[in-house]
């Protein structure tokens, strides 16, 4: 059986024709036709745009079988349908869908849609096509009504849920006493139609357009016809109409009956969970257990009143027309329905509340005591010394309106599966809470109590069923209060595969510990456990904790020993330690030989045989076995010009001589002997003293940051002392048994000449190097360091340029040779400069139009000024290098291309129309730019809390991408973030960025001191965690609307106070949770600061919570954070 609320025509040009749109009583689901899940659909046969109104497209719609509908999301969607239907002048009427959810369509959210259902009542076609247009990314408005019949019928607003509005004509014969009726399952619903114009005919009641019941016209009582529905179920709900027999459907009275799926005060799939106490007419949602607050009220229990003229979940929306929302009807997601705004009543919401009444539709009575006065928008306003909903309690009031207030409870908590967390819930009040007055409720309704006045609840092992909303309640004789918070249950991670061996040595194993894992991240620690395989028993496991992003080295192991190695992963929080992963067996190598053989002598035994003798130091045996000096010897005969000539293996560790056959005649060789074990070579044999009458060859090289090139080979011969010696260098001559000795005088002259020649060659090399370096620096300064760029020819549509960076960095890992980078080259004639965007001391940015791939694109072109320093040129080239390596991302400024013209380099990047984030924030300070507007709207900024948080979230996403690419920005600040077309944040200015995990600055230069981490200030060390510190300062800039960090303090004071624990104070408009995130970024120890992935996740949750984390309301004595441009440049 299908619900009667089948879909009518949709009015939205962005609905794909391959979509299926369905309706359920609790949520709307939009499924792509390409979905992998099969869906059975039934064609309803409906067509026509917006009830067949002119000018709209035509769609064919299908209804999804209810059993296949997706479940509703975990929270109530902030969606409001606002209606202003003026019968006297329909042209002024409008219908608006207002979404308070962050993000626009196409950013993970479904589109905002308007619908009219013509199955229940169908009016004549409009004389003029209606106009449907967006009023921003979160508002859709329908205008252009020309006759009263255009306004009649059932309208719906859709975006992940459905909000329905039923309009009644003021000229109808029968009018409802109350349009929306919300009841619980099993209750009795009473619909009452007031007679406006009497007729002597029967009255027909219809349900969803079908006949339901008939009453004789004489059954009217007190001028009303009443329909009672007993023991209602969910299927009983819908649109009901009451009309005289034979009258037009447009002259009927329309009702909406909403039936909650649970009994009163209960919610959940089995209705076993207890609802919160929703105040001021709020209704508990039977699906998610949250209060749907009336328009004009907010808070978890609808306990707070918005300012006059405000509505929305966080009071963030302003009424679009008359003051105080007069004449507007507000419809919210079921089970609330529709009502007038707070303070108004009547069929057209034009009547202010009578004296003593307040709230949406004026259904709440004040009954204020002790001198309290009734405000029709918020209720009782109590005099000093009294509080409570009716000013019935004496003493200091609280924000909850009772004598109690729960404090210091986070909006969201995260538990690990099977953990036993400690939940702290504190409350204040008069009288103060005592033992037993507080309790903690889980999602399944079970209650945890405590016998401690500290209100700490020890939670039993957490299960997956514990995810969802929890509630802390306090109740004393002075009243009661409750606070809800959302619990996320995470499964600790477990490796799916054993660790992988990367390299092995005799006493070390290099292991890659982290691959795929099950459970939830992020991974906070990786613990590597290992134990010998062949121990006397199971034995204890040794362990080492490593960085999740790096390979691990197990040191101090035994050679030739097998080890069982396993990995345990942990995530943040108590109980975050996961189970051990599968084991891997790894075996260490045998030890390298440590004994160095000694070359004793060599001689030619015959014309083609060379005999070599060596020895081992005293005490070195040669019996073999696992701890012998080696498994044998390797003899290597080197030809200095042609490289390695001969290699001879001697497999016996007892051997002390060997014969090398067929050496080439007349060739000078080098000879060494080494021990080997398990394929590893020991040290080569070298003489401790020079031998007499021996010819030696020398060569030198210089070492700075790395070794230089070898010099030419110089040859010298030691003086003869009448002794026959041996040498590692020998000359093979055909037909002789040994090398002939030279005369002492000739040898001395040759030695002197060799030394002089060697010194001359070395000095000449140094002079040439200095001269070349001087010429190179001169060329670099003249050509703006364009020497690093070359333009090889490439095939393809787009010309590409390659370059190698000259940036000097210090990394913990060995530096790889720089590889040429490729990026698109722009032709000079394809750039049309327009105007100057910004200018600094050494560079400038110009707006330009460029031609790229045949299209004209807006771009920002950066260039250096003529007198820029070498450091500026290096940073400029480094920025281009970073942009090339990073690639495209929505939250970084992307490279469009580069161009070289007349020795100058131009870099074209995306154009951001709103400029940098710092100036954008400062321009939003509306109290300074337009005080009248600020006071009229009660706001300190033209930006909302959601927009400010979205700026921070965008930057966190971009920095997460940079950190995953192992780039350090080093200058993250609001001035270096640009605001794009759709107010998205884009990280820019990569001139100081480095593609390293650790960067140590060795040169002097301008530094952004107020944004720098402690380790960067003290030691000039930069890591990703240094960028995290800077992000905390940037978050403070966003909350303070562009204030100067540490305003009023000099750089010298920062150097002194930051290591002592000083941090910036919490801005008055900043929520505790946001300030706590700042403090996490400003922790002294870098490894204790969160990763950007964690920051991005936390900010995403804040955006989803739809809470005003940054208060932009004009509170008492409001002042902006100070700005000191001079200090920012210091």
Detailed description of the structure:
By secondary structure, the chain is of the alpha+beta class. Among the domains are: 75-167, Immunoglobulins (Immunoglobulin-like, Sandwich), CATH 2.60.40.10; 172-260, Immunoglobulin-like (Sandwich); 405-490, Immunoglobulins (Immunoglobulin-like, Sandwich), CATH 2.60.40.10; 494-587, Immunoglobulins (Immunoglobulin-like); 598-613 and 631-676; 823-911, Phosphorylase Kinase, domain 1, CATH 3.30.200.20; 914-1127, Transferase(Phosphotransferase) domain 1 (Transferase(Phosphotransferase), domain 1). Helices cover 13% and strands 32% of the residues. The chain contains twelve helices and 79 strands. The strands form 27 sheets. A six-stranded antiparallel sheet has the order 9-10-7-6-29-30, with no helix packed on it. A five-stranded mixed sheet has the order 14-20-19-16-17, with no helix packed on it. Strands 40-47-46-43-44 form a five-stranded mixed sheet, with no helix packed on it. A hairpin with a 6-residue loop joins strand 23 and strand 24. The protein is elongated. 37% of the residues are buried.
């Amino acid at each position: 059986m299908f619900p009667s609320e089948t879909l009518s025509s949709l009015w939205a040009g962005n609905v794909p024709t391959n979509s299926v749109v369905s309706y359920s009583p609790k949520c709307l689901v939009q499924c792509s036709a390409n979905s992998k899940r099969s869906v059975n659909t039934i064609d309803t046969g409906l067509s026509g745009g917006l009830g067949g109104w002119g000018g709209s497209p035509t769609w064919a719609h299908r209804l999804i079988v209810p059993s296949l509908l997706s479940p509703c999301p975990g929270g109530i969607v902030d969606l409001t349908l606002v209606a202003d239907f003026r019968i006297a002048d329909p042209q002024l009427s409008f219908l608006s869908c207002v979404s308070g959810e962050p993000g626009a369509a196409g950013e993970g959210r479904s589109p905002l849609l308007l619908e009219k259902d013509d199955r229940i009542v169908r009016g004549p076609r409009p004389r003029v096509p209606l106009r449907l247009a967006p009023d921003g990314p979160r508002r859709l408005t329908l205008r252009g009504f020309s006759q009263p019949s255009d306004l009649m019928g059932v309208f719906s607003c859709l975006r992940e849920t459905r909000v329905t509005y039923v309009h009644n004509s003021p000229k109808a014969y029968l009018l409802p006493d109350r349009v929306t009726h919300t009841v619980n399952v099993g209750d009795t619903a009473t619909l009452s139609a007031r007679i406006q114009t009497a007729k002597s005919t029967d009255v027909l009641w219809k349900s969803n357009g079908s006949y339901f019941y008939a009453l004789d016209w004489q059954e009217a009582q007190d001028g009303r016809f009443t329909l009672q529905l007993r023991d209602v179920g969910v299927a009983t709900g819908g649109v009901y109409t009451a009309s005289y027999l034979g009258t037009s459907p447009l002259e009927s009275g329309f009702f909406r009956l909403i039936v909650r799926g649970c009994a009163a005060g209960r919610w959940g799939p089995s209705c076993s969970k207890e609802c919160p106490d929703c105040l001021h007419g709020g209704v508990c949602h039977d699906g998610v257990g949250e209060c749907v607050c009336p328009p004009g009220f907010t808070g978890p229990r609808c306990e707070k009143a918005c300012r006059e003229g405000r509505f929305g979940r966080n009071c963030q929306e302003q009424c679009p027309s008359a003051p105080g929302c007069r004449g507007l009807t507000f419809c919210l997601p079921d089970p609330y329905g529709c009502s007038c705004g707070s303070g108004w009543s009547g069929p057209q919401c034009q009547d202010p509340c009578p004296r003593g009444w307040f709230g949406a539709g004026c259904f709440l009575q004040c009954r204020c005591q002790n001198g309290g006065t009734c405000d029709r928008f918020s209720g009782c306003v109590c005099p000093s010394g009294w509080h409570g909903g009716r000013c019935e309690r004496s003493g200091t009031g609280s924000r909850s309106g009772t004598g109690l207030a729960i404090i210091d409870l986070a909006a969201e908590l995260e538990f690990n599966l099977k953990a036993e967390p400690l939940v702290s819930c504190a409350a204040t009040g008069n009288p103060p809470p005592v033992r037993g007055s507080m309790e903690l409720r889980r999602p399944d309704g079970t209650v945890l109590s405590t016998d401690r006045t500290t209100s700490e609840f020890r939670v039993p092992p957490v299960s997956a069923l514990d995810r969802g909303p929890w509630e802390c309640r306090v109740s004393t004789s002075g009243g009661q209060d409750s606070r809800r918070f959302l619990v996320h249950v995470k499964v600790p991670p477990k490796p799916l595969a054993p660790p992988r061996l990367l390299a092995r040595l005799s006493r070390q194993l290099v292991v890659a510990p982290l691959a795929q894992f099950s459970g939830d991240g992020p991974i906070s620690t990786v613990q590597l456990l290992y134990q010998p395989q062949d121990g006397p028993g199971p034995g204890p496991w040794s362990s080492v904790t490593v960085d999740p992003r790096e390979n691990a080295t197990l040191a101090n192991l035994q050679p030739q020993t097998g080890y069982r190695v396993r990995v345990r992963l942990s995530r943040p929080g108590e109980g975050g330690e996961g189970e051990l992963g599968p084991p891997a067996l790894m075996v260490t190598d045998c030890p390298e030989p440590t004994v160095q053989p000694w070359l004793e002598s060599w001689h030619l035994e015959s014309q083609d045989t060379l005999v070599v003798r060596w020895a081992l130091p005293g005490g070195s045996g040669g019996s073999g076995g696992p701890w012998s000096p080696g498994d044998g010897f390797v003899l290597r005969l080197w030809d200095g010009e042609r490289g390695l000539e001969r290699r001879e293996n001697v497999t016996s560790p007892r051997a002390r001589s060997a014969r090398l056959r067929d050496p080439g005649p007349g060739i000078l060789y080098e000879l060494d002997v080494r021990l080997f074990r398990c394929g590893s070579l020991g040290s080569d044999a070298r003489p401790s003293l020079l031998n007499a009458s021996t010819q030696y060859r020398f060569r030198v090289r210089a070492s700075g940051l790395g070794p230089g090139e070898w010099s030419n080979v110089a040859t010298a011969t030691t003086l003869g002392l009448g002794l026959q010696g041996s040498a590692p260098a020998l000359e093979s001559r055909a037909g002789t048994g040994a090398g002939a000795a030279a005369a002492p005088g000739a040898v001395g002259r040759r030695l002197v000449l060799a030394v002089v020649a060697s010194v001359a060659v070395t000095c000449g090399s140094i002079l040439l190097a200095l001269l070349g370096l001087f010429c190179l620096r001169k060329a670099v300064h003249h050509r703006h360091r364009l020497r690093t760029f070359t333009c090889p020819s490439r095939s393809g549509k787009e010309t590409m340029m390659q370059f190698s960076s000259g940036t000097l960095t210090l990394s913990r890992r060995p530096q790889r040779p720089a590889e040429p980078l490729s990026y698109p080259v722009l032709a000079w004639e394809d750039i049309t400069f327009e105007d100057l965007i910004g200018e600094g001391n050494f560079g400038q940015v110009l707006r330009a139009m460029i031609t790229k791939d045949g299209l004209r694109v807006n771009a920002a072109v950066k260039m250096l000024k003529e007198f820029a320093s070498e450091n500026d040129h290096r940073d400029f080239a480094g920025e281009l290098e970073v942009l090339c390596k990073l690639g495209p991302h929505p939250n970084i400024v992307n490279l469009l291309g580069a161009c070289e013209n007349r020795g100058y380099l131009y870099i074209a990047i995306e154009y951001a129309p709103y400029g940098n984030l710092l100036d954008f924030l400062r321009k939003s300070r509306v109290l300074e730019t337009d005080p009248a507007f600020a006071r009229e709207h009660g706001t300190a900024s033209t930006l909302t809390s959601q927009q400010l948080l979205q700026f921070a979230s965008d930057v966190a996403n971009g920095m997460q991408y940079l950190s995953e690419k192992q780039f350090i920005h080093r200058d993250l600040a609001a001035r270096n973030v640009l605001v794009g077309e759709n107010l998205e944040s884009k990280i820019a200015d990569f001139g100081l960025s480095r593609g390293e995990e650790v960067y140590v600055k060795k040169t002097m230069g301008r530094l952004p001191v107020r944004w720098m981490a402690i380790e960067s200030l003290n030691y000039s060390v930069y890591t990703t965690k240094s960028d995290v510190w800077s992000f905390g300062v940037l978050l403070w800039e966003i909350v303070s609307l562009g204030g100067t960090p540490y305003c009023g303090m000099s750089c010298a004071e920062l150097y002194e106070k930051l290591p002592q624990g000083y941090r910036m104070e919490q801005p008055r408009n900043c929520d505790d949770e946001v300030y706590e995130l700042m403090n996490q970024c400003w922790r002294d120890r870098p490894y204790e600061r969160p990763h950007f992935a964690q920051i991005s996740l936390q900010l995403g949750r804040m955006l989803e919570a739809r809470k005003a984390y940054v208060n932009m309301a004009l509170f008492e004595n409001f002042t902006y954070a100070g700005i000191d441009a001079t200090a920012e440049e210091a």
